[in-house]
Amino acid sequence: MILTTVLISIISTVTFAKEVIAEGRTYSALGDYKIETADNPIQMKGENWKAFIISYTNTPMEVTVVVCKERKCKKFLVLSDELCVQYVCNSHYFGVERLDKSLEKEGYKTSDSNLNRIEYFHQKVLSHGQISELDATRYIAAFFPFLLKTDENNIAQL
User: Fold this and answer.
1) Dihedral sign from CA coordinates of 96, 132, 138, 106
2) 22 with 13: CB under 8 angstroms?
3) Alpha-carbon separation of residue 30 from 61, 78, 134, 140 (angstroms)
4) CA distance 51 to 138
5) d(C-alpha 132, C-alpha 157), whole Å
6) By percentage, how much of the chain surpasses pLDDT 70?
7) What pTM value is reported for the model?
8) Which residues contact 84 (CB under 8 A, 6 or more apart)?
9) Quick check: 135 and 90 in contact, CB under 8 A?
10) pLDDT tens column, 62-104
11) Ordered alpha helix ranges (H), the chain
């Protein structure tokens, strides 16, 4: 009976665990990142989109990255409690932008109060040419923490 319970627990854990697809360093106060696939697609603008969850070692904050495929580019909507932005990947560049006005209906807007404007302009072009979804998500995981205005409340005390 105990063996059966342990076996069911292990199978349940493996079945419901998110898949870690990448890990790396941010060189920011938020610490190292881990990227996992979201359990379910995210619905926005009436469609279901693939999503990733980014977590950091020094904060409980999680960041959701929603991948929206459009005609000639992909938009990576970066959503967190602290700041929402989008990264755009087209044939010319990959870089950060403010969220589209159309997303305000869904309750998402880029807030200037938490945005580090200097870093925002530094991230307007992070790479030239198209890059893969995984590489784009890695760039986002590594560079997004620098867009946040420094707030000691977001960082766990070490």
Assistant:
1) positive
2) no
3) 9, 16, 20, 13
4) 13
5) 35
6) 84
7) 0.82
8) 77, 78, 99, 103, 108, 109, 110, 111
9) no
10) 999 999 988 888 999 999 999 999 999 988 999 999 998 888 8
11) 2-16, 117-122, 133-147
